Amino acid sequence: MESKRRRKNPEAMPKKGILERLRDGVVIGDGGFVFQLEKRGYVKAGPWTPEATCENPEAVRQLHRDFLRAGSDVMQALTFYASDTKLENRGNKAGQTFSGKAINAAACKLAREVADEGDALVAGGLSQTPTYLSGRSKKEVQVDFQKQVQVFVDNNLDFLICEYFEHVEEIEWAIEVCKATGKPVAATMCIGPEGDMHGVSAGDCAVRMVKAGADIVGVNCHFDPSISLHTVRLMKEGLERAGLKAFLMSQPLAYHTPDAGKQGFIDLPEFPFALESRICTRWDIQKYAREAYELGVRYIGGCCGFEPYHVRAISEELMKERGKKSMATEKHDLWGGGLLMHTKPWVRARASREYWENLRPGSGRPYCPSMSQPDEWGVTAGSQVLMQHSEATTEKEFKELANHAVKTRSRK
Amino acid sequence: MESKRRRKNPEAMPKKGILERLRDGVVIGDGGFVFQLEKRGYVKAGPWTPEATCENPEAVRQLHRDFLRAGSDVMQALTFYASDTKLENRGNKAGQTFSGKAINAAACKLAREVADEGDALVAGGLSQTPTYLSGRSKKEVQVDFQKQVQVFVDNNLDFLICEYFEHVEEIEWAIEVCKATGKPVAATMCIGPEGDMHGVSAGDCAVRMVKAGADIVGVNCHFDPSISLHTVRLMKEGLERAGLKAFLMSQPLAYHTPDAGKQGFIDLPEFPFALESRICTRWDIQKYAREAYELGVRYIGGCCGFEPYHVRAISEELMKERGKKSMATEKHDLWGGGLLMHTKPWVRARASREYWENLRPGSGRPYCPSMSQPDEWGVTAGSQVLMQHSEATTEKEFKELANHAVKTRSRK
Amino acid sequence: MESKRRRKNPEAMPKKGILERLRDGVVIGDGGFVFQLEKRGYVKAGPWTPEATCENPEAVRQLHRDFLRAGSDVMQALTFYASDTKLENRGNKAGQTFSGKAINAAACKLAREVADEGDALVAGGLSQTPTYLSGRSKKEVQVDFQKQVQVFVDNNLDFLICEYFEHVEEIEWAIEVCKATGKPVAATMCIGPEGDMHGVSAGDCAVRMVKAGADIVGVNCHFDPSISLHTVRLMKEGLERAGLKAFLMSQPLAYHTPDAGKQGFIDLPEFPFALESRICTRWDIQKYAREAYELGVRYIGGCCGFEPYHVRAISEELMKERGKKSMATEKHDLWGGGLLMHTKPWVRARASREYWENLRPGSGRPYCPSMSQPDEWGVTAGSQVLMQHSEATTEKEFKELANHAVKTRSRK
Amino acid sequence: MESKRRRKNPEAMPKKGILERLRDGVVIGDGGFVFQLEKRGYVKAGPWTPEATCENPEAVRQLHRDFLRAGSDVMQALTFYASDTKLENRGNKAGQTFSGKAINAAACKLAREVADEGDALVAGGLSQTPTYLSGRSKKEVQVDFQKQVQVFVDNNLDFLICEYFEHVEEIEWAIEVCKATGKPVAATMCIGPEGDMHGVSAGDCAVRMVKAGADIVGVNCHFDPSISLHTVRLMKEGLERAGLKAFLMSQPLAYHTPDAGKQGFIDLPEFPFALESRICTRWDIQKYAREAYELGVRYIGGCCGFEPYHVRAISEELMKERGKKSMATEKHDLWGGGLLMHTKPWVRARASREYWENLRPGSGRPYCPSMSQPDEWGVTAGSQVLMQHSEATTEKEFKELANHAVKTRSRK
C-alpha cells in the first residue's frame, strides 16, 4: 500500500520552487507539530524539543502524511528548538542521547520521504535561541544558527524558514545566515499588533526582515488567526510605505486569544495544558483562509493547535483558487455534507454552510469565564531572569516563581 | 525500530484475560477512533464507517500505537458501524468497495499487531444497527450481529464488547449472540441518567444486560464523564437491588455536555463539527479517572473526543493503583512538571498540581454562550422517520428537515 | 396633585375581596420591598428589617405608589422580619428605637394610604422566625406570630400572607394563627423542587398548608421564575392527588438562579451584593407571567429583585386577560414600541416583540462565569449553628466562619 | 417628618460654590434619572423626555432625595432632552401638554427643594439637540439652548452643565451660551477613546471645550466606568499638551460595555431594555471611584444605570478623602459588614472586603454570550437619516429599518 504513495521517479520531473508557486497561486503550509505530537505522546511540553525524529520516526512520518493528505504543500522538517543549547537547557536530557545534528538530519529525511509521496516541498526551520535570550553576542547566536542550517544544506532542503522570533534583531541575524545559502528564505515573527518585544512596530519588523534578505515575511504562532492577520496587515502597510515587496505569510495558532497580551498565548493562564476550549473549529479556519487570501497572503498555514483537519479546511476554502482538492477531502464532504448520511434526521438537517457559519458554539463550561487575565511579567531578551542554563529548576526557585505569580495576579 | 516493539514469542506466555485483570486491578480502555481519525483525515463524519482499516492501515495502526503508548490495556478493533447495512446506508459508498467482512478482518489484524507490541488484549465490538432502528425483527438484527461476531471468532479476539446501544432490547439481542461464543462479554449503552430511549431506567438496563449474559456493564459515548458516572452509579445501585454482580465499565465522551438532553451530544447543535470548546482537558480526565475508580468502576476508558493524551491522563491518575506507568508518560512529567524546563519564568510557575486543578479555563469566545439548547425531536426506534435505506438524502428531503429544525428551535 | 389620587369616598363602594378577585380573574402582587429599598438607601442588607416605615415613611410610600402604578392589586404592608426577636438579633439595633408593633402599625397605615389611591387591597405578612430556627416550641413561635397578626387585625387589613418559610411545620403554625382571625390566608414557602429543608416534598407542603387552613398556596423568593413555577407545578400535582383545592400563587425572584442549590439564592456566592448580572429583563418577566397563567396560577407577583417595571411587565403580558392596563403603561409602549421615537434609526429598528423575545443579552463581563458554585452547608432548623441571639458577631466568630467557607469551597 | 429635612434658614449661610468645592476636595454627582424613572414608571424609553417633573413631581422629588441621602453634592435638575423640539419629535406627545419651559421650571424647583434639605448645589443641564443632528445652523441651535438656559437663570441655579454631546462643535456652541450667564460651566461629552463622531480626538475635544469657556470638562454616559476613565485620561493629556487647566469630571454608565463600538451602549443590541446583566455592582463602582480619584478627577458621578446605591458606593470609597459619610451609609455597613447580622452562618462569612473584591459574579444566563456585536451604522450629524421631524415613525419606515438591521448584522 505505502509503495503506491511514492512517485516513481521523482528526479525526472523537478518540483516547482516555493517562490514560483507563490507567484502563481497560493501555498498551504502545515500545522503544529510539537503540540500535536505532545497530544499523541511523543513530545514533552516544557522543553518542546523534537527528539521524536530519532525516537519514534513512524509517529513523525505519520503526522507528515496526515498533513500532506490534508493539503499541505510544504513539509516542514521537525527541527523546532533542535539546537544543542536548547536540548540541554534547564534539565532537558534529550541532548544527552541525541545530538542536535542527528535530530535535524532525521527530521530532514522524514520530511523528504513524505513530501515525495506527493508534490510537496521540504523546508528547514530556525527559531529563537536561548543564546539570544541570555544576552549573548551576534556571533555566538549565529554559530547556533549555522550548525542547523548546515544540516539543511547537506540534505538539500528546498527552502528555509526563520520562525518564532520575538525580537526583530535576532531574526535579522537568522535571515543573514540563511540567505548566505542561496536558498529562498521565509521569515515569520511570533508578534502581535503591538510589535516586537523591544518595541519595534510590526511594520518596521517587516521592513527589516525584507532588508535582511527575506523573500517571504509574516507572522506565526502566539496569536489567533484574526489577530495574526491584523499584524500581517500592519506589516503589509509598512512594506508599502517603504516601497518594498515580499510575499506575505501567516501561520497563526488554532486557538482563540482575544485576551492575550503582548507576549501572546504563552501568557494566558491556560497555556499549555488547558487550551482546549479555545481550539478553533474548521469553520473558524475557513473564515481565516478567506480573510488571509483577501488580504493578499499567499503562504497560508498554521502553527500550534493546527491539526490536519484545520489544514484541510484551508484547502477546502481555497479549492477554487487552487483548482484542486486535498486527498483528505475524500473523507469530508464540504460544509458538513457528510451529515446527509447520518442516521438521525435532525443531524442531517445540519448539513449546510448556513448552519455552520452562523453557529455560536457553547463551551459546556458554565463555571468558566470567556476570557482570562494574562500573566504580565514584561520580561524580554537580556533580562537576568531569562538567563538560560543547563541545570534543572530547583524546588526553591519554583516556589519563588509561584509566589511571584500569585502576587502579580492579585494585584489586578 | 519497529521490530523492537514486538514481543519475541507471544505464544510462549499467554496474556492474562480481561476478567482476571478486572478482578486483580483496573483496566484502561482506549479512546475515540472515529472522531480522531476524522480529524486526521481518514474517516468521514456522517456515516462514520471504518473502511480506513483497508484504505489507510498505517493510520489506524499508528492510532492504536498512540493509545498503547498512552496506557490502554485493550486494543479495540476498529469495527464500529462495520455492518454491511450501515456501509451502504443513505448513499454511503464504502460498502461498494469493501465488504463488512473485509473491513472487520483488517481491523482485527491491525489491533492484534499493535496489541502484541505490548501486553494489551484485543476486543471486537458490536454496536446498534440501522436494522433495529428501522423496526425489523430480532432474527434479522441478530443476523447482522452474527456476521460480525464470526469475524471476531475467526481472528480469535480476546473478548467482545457490545457498545453504543440506545435501546436495552437491542443490546440484549447482541449480548446473546456474543455470549454464545463463550468469550467474555462487556456491554455498554450510550444512555444517560434518564435511561434508554424506550423509558427503561439505567438501573433496569444494567440488570437486563447482566441477565442476558454480560460480564461487564456500563455506559459509553453520548455524555461527559461526570454525567456518565452518574449513570453508572444508577446502574450499580440497580444491580445491588437485584442482587446481581458484574464489573463496571465507563467510556464517556471527552466533551463537556451539561446541556445535553436525553439523546446526548448528538442533539447538541455543535455536533459533530463545532465541539472544540467542549473538549476536556487532561485535568478533567484525571478527575474523571479518580471518581470512576472510587465509584468502583474497573474498566475505565473513553469514547468520542478521547485522544491519546486523555488516556495517558487516566493512567497517570491511577499510576499508584496500577503500579506502573504508561510509555507516553516518559514524555509527560506529572502535573505539568515539564514546564520547569520552560524558558519563561512565569510559565515555570505553572508547574504544579494546585495550579492546574484550580484553573477555570477561559474559552476565548466572548460572543458564544456556555450552554446550548439541544435539538429535541423525541424520535426513537420504530419511528417512521428512522427507517433506513440505501438511497442518499435528496435536496428536497434536506430542505424539509432544515425547515423542521428551524421551527423546532424557534418554539423554545 | 396627590389629592387627585385618593378615592373620594372609599367607604361608599367596598372593594372586592381577594378570594372573589381570584375566582374572577388574575391578581397581580407587588415586588421586592427590602431589596429595592436597600438600593434606594433605606433598608440595611443583613438584618433586612423594615424600620424604614417609621424612619423614612415617604420612601416606603413612594415605592408602594410605584408598584400601584405598575399594576399591583395588592399592597403588602412592609412587615417583613418585623418581629421583636429579629429586630434585636445579632447586634441589630433597630429594635432599640422602634418596637415591632410600631413598625408594623406604620407599615399598615402606609400600605392602606396608597392602596386607596387605587383599587388595591392591603395584606399583612408573617415570615419565618429566629425563634423557630433556634429550635423553640410551637407555643413560643406562635406568640411571635400572634403579636404581628394583632396589628394587622387592629388595622383591619384585607387578608394575610404567610411567606418565606423554609419549613412546612413552621408555616403550618403561622397559618393556624392567621386562620383564627377569619381573614383569607395566603401561604407561600421559599422552597424549590426539592421540597422543604426537612425533606418534605413540594407536593406534600402544599397539601399540609391547605389542610392547615390556607386558601391560596404557592412559593415566593429563593428561586428564579422558571424554577419557582416548576415547584408550583409540583404543588398543584400534590393537591390534585390529595383531592384538595386552593388558589395558586407565585412570587419568585427577579434573578436567574439555574445554579442554586436547595436553599436557593442565599447560597449563591453573589448574594446579596453582586446579583446584578442575574437580574431578569422585562421580557423574562413577560414570559414568566404567561407561563404562570397557563399553569393556572392566579396570584402572580414577585419577590426580591422585582422592581416596579417587572410588575408592569406582568400586567402588560396579561392585559387582555385582565381587560385593563396599568397606570405606568402610559409610559411604556408595548414590546419596546417607544423606541419608534428614538433619534437613531438603528434603535428604532428594535421596536418589536420579535426583536426582544429572541435577544440573548450579553453580560459585558467576559472574565466572569455564567454559573457559580453555591455554598452548601446543609444546615437547617434546630442546628446549633442557627441558634439566634442578640449579641453581634465577634471578629473571632467571623474568622472561623470565613475559614470554614474557604475550606468548603476548595473541597469542590 | 419631611419638615425636619429643611435647613432652617438657608439664606443665612450661603453654600460654597462648585469651583470652590472642587478646589478643596472631591464633589460627588448624582446618578441616572431617566433610566431610573423609566424603571419606576414615570419616564418613557425612546423619547426619554422629562415631563414627569410636571406629571409626577413626588416621584422626581423622591429620587432626588434618594441621591442626596446617597451622598450627591449636586442635584441636577431633570431637564434632560427638555427642549420643545425634542418634546414634539417623532410622534412624542409630551410637548402638547407641557411646554419645555414649564417642565424645566418644575425641574428647577424640585431640585432646589431637595438640595436645601442638605448642603447640595443645583445644576441645570443642556444636552445635544435634534436641531443640530438635523444639520441646522449654529444660530438655530443656540436659540434652543438659550430658551433652556433662561429658565436656569430665572431660577438662579448654582451652575450649568453641558452634557451628552457627541460632537465637539455642538458642545462649543452650548458652552458659549452658558458662559454668557456668568455661572460656572461644566462640559462633558458622551464619547469614548476614539473621540467625537466627526473624528476629533478626545484630547482635542477637551482643549476646545476649555477654550470655549468650560471650567470643568470630562465625559458622561455611553461607556462603562473603565472606558470612560480611559477617555478622561486622554483628555487630561490633551490639556497638558496644550498647557490648559480645568477640573476633570466623569459621569459614566453603570453598565459594563467592553464590546461597545464608537457610539457606545446605544449600539449594543441590549439597549435599552435588556441591559440588566451589564449592571455594575457596588464594588465595581468603588473601584471606579478610586481610579477616578487617582487619575485626578474631582467631580465624580454617574449617568444611566447609576442608582442611589451606586452613588453611595462612591461616597463610601472616598469617605476618608471627604471626611464625611453619606446619610444612606447608616443603612450600609462598609464592605458588606451588615451581613454579620445575617441568620445563616455562611452568609455572615461573606462580610469582608476581600470576599467582595475578588468575587467574579456569575450571570445565571448560561445560554447567553458575555459580549455582543454592536450595530454599526456609522451615521452621524448631518446625515439624511438623522433628519428629525414631528411625525411618528410609520410601519413602512419601521420595516425598512428592521430589514436593514438584519442585513447589517448578517454581514458580520
TrEMBL record, chains A, B, C, D:
Cited PROSITE patterns: HCY
Signal peptide coordinates: none
GO molecular function terms listed in the Swiss-Prot or TrEMBL record: betaine-homocysteine S-methyltransferase activity; zinc ion binding
Domain called Hcy-binding: residue spans: 15-318
Cofactor binding note: Binds 1 zinc ion per subunit.
Pathway the protein contributes to: Amino-acid biosynthesis; L-methionine biosynthesis via de novo pathway; L-methionine from L-homocysteine (BhmT route): step 1/1
Alphabetized Pfam families for the sequence: S-methyl_trans
Needed co-factor(s): Zn(2+)
Alphabetical list of SUPFAM superfamilies matching this protein: Homocysteine S-methyltransferase (SSF82282)
Domain of life the protein comes from: Eukaryota
Alphabetical UniProt keywords: Metal-binding, Methyltransferase, Transferase, Zinc
Biological process terms in GO annotation: methionine biosynthetic process; methylation
Residues involved in Zn(2+) binding: C221, C303, C304
PANTHER family assigned: BETAINE--HOMOCYSTEINE S-METHYLTRANSFERASE 1, HCY-BINDING DOMAIN-CONTAINING PROTEIN
Protein name as it appears in the record: Hcy-binding domain-containing protein
Organism this protein belongs to: Ladona fulva (Scarce chaser dragonfly)
